Amino acid sequence: MSEKKNPVSAAAEKIAGKVQDAISPGNELPGAPGSEAPQVEEPTKAREPLPPKHDQTGPDTYSPTGQPTGAPQDRVAQGGAYLTTAQGARLYDTDHSLKAGPRGPVLLQDHHLREKITHFDHERIPERVVHARGAAAHGVFRAYGAAAGITKAAFLAEGAETPVFVRFSTVLGSRGSADTVRDTRGFATKFYTDEGVFDLVGNNMPVFFIQDAIKFPDIIHAGKPHPDREIPQAQSAHDTFWDFVTLHTEATHHTLWNMSDRGIPRSYRMMEGFGIHTFRLVNAEGATTLVKFHWKPKLGVHSLVWEEAQLTAGMDPDFHRRDLADAIEAGAFPQWELGVQTFPDTEDEMFEGIDLLDPTKIVPEELAPVRPIGLMTLNANPSNYFAETEQVAFHVGHLVPGIDVSNDPLMQGRLFSYVDTQITRLGGPNFAQLPINRTHAPVNDMLRDGMHQTAVHRGVAPYRPNSLDGGCPFVAGADTGAYIEVPAEVPAARKVRDAAASFDDHFSQARLFWLSMTPTEREHIVAAYTFELGKCWEPAVKERGLRSLANIDPELCAQVARGLGLEAPEATVALASVEPSPALSQLGRTWPVDGRVIGIVTDGKTGLDAVREARGGILDAGMVPLVIAPTGGELAAGGDPVAVQRTFTTARSTEFDAVLLAGSPAPAADAYGARDAKTDDAAAARTGVDPRVLLLVTEAFRHGKAVGAWGDGATVLEKAGLAADAAGVVSGGAASTVLDGVAALLAGHRAWDRFPPAL
Prior knowledge:
single chain, alpha/beta, 11-stranded mixed β-sheet, 6-stranded parallel β-sheet, 19 helices, about 15% strand, globular, oxidoreductase, peroxidase, iron, heme
């Protein structure tokens, strides 16, 4: 994505200032669990519930039938200073069951016990079969008006502002799995438009594993843990996954994306989103255009390195959801531009020889540039995970006038599957009435009753035509905003279980992706395939995997085969002649550093003025400083107190995008192996530097992160065996100078030239 401003970017960027002004700044650094600091003793004086934190909000207050209520959000939250039953009766005790004497049996008449336990027993709903592990945020979308010529959708008209709720997720793992596993990520956006809800339900990869929805149970069953042992969790490095995708080679293109750095994003904030399918847009005159939707992050597309992802899964399995929530709380609101690739709506639904109905194919941006049509800013965290993030229900068929579906066979199946899933998960057909799912447009649907019906309908004639309710509701026409499907021609054909011949090409676009990668990215892909296939037990699955790689590129196949200790097979199809697409690579550009996390290592006693200077400079640059010292508390030494956010015990390199060394800390009091397993007693004695600081620095260096040092901090570089002039290392006499150099390196995400690739 180019950093050049589009003609309307100045207007679009007003959103950031608007939402920033609307939210009062909270703590200087994010992460406080509540809106007020607690006291040491248990509070005993009755008071009303605390307000939410400054960064939190809930669904807008609309009725179950889409009517704005005007009620403040605290009207749907708990109220009152006293503990009550679900019916509002105040309680004097909730710690003891009602018994026949202090040591007697519990009485059946204890209605409070039964209500409390019964509700607890039913607190959980079935988790999503896929995309169970998620995080979400509220925001606003503002349209540039650039789509006005291709769609009559009102929320895409110039200047239109639409509330949104976005849920990010992993595909394979359970709700309790880790964030940083290698997997596809969901990127689902709910637009609460004036014409109804529009859901853009996509992923962080533009292609899918399969071409037809009838195979979705197969790919998910293959990717999920083995049914006999329920392992491995949240990963594809096992036999059943690779057995399926090597037999069903239409998965090859998506598999290559998953084995690239796209499979382990640095942050949800630094992740692209794609609508995957081809949609059909219709404008006010009835003309149609085929489009693909893209979300382009303003911070750029960045990833973790594999070891870093593995360490993070253990150190902080909530890494991605914490990063998103902390950034919003700190005011570093993530932004994405929504863009479209447009194609003529021709009878064959092809573009430059690419089948637009095949969800395993992309159209390179060099052939069809992505045209920005609006800006989305996420500016508030949910106030309740279950009510919002867990209960939000997306559906590909939630459409508004001006947007229609295509005959993509994967998309067609999703149109059925999503509603069917929500009925099971959310207990019945009225899931749209949950606050997070409520439309902001009036509803008069004649749907009645069912489990969890919260609307109180009026009238006696929920049918039409009728006269008893005065004929209401009436059908609308195109001139009164009706949703009318595009009257597309349906080809005359026999009923068949088949696909177009163009769906048979499974390797040319995988080769396009491979050839578009930089040498560094190719190294990572080789390592990923070697790891994943190396985790398979069956030799036949590994050999079949190599056959697929041979049809992509002989060097890729040879490198992976060498790692597996197997012979590289010959290609079974002619290698496609393709032009690389530079837009597919994540490297080679610079991006804003908003929200990047920088660790500042100090001995806690010396050079604190420089620590304060660095800390202030980091905050001024829109980044997050975390001070790391031998112990917690506050550091003063003659100046303003400096809060310690991490200690040598609690810090790990995976949390930081860069590390600054403000001193050379001697081994702290707890720097011995029995107290902290990260400690190396021999290294402590040999270097005189706390070994956990050495581990922090060497690990960050190994992962390609920027490292800066001034004053005695240069001693740590020396003891860690790092040259002061190594790639990605900045040393100098002043904190501000070092910080400037580190910030410049962060704009490129990592010091990739630190590790010359072999390929």
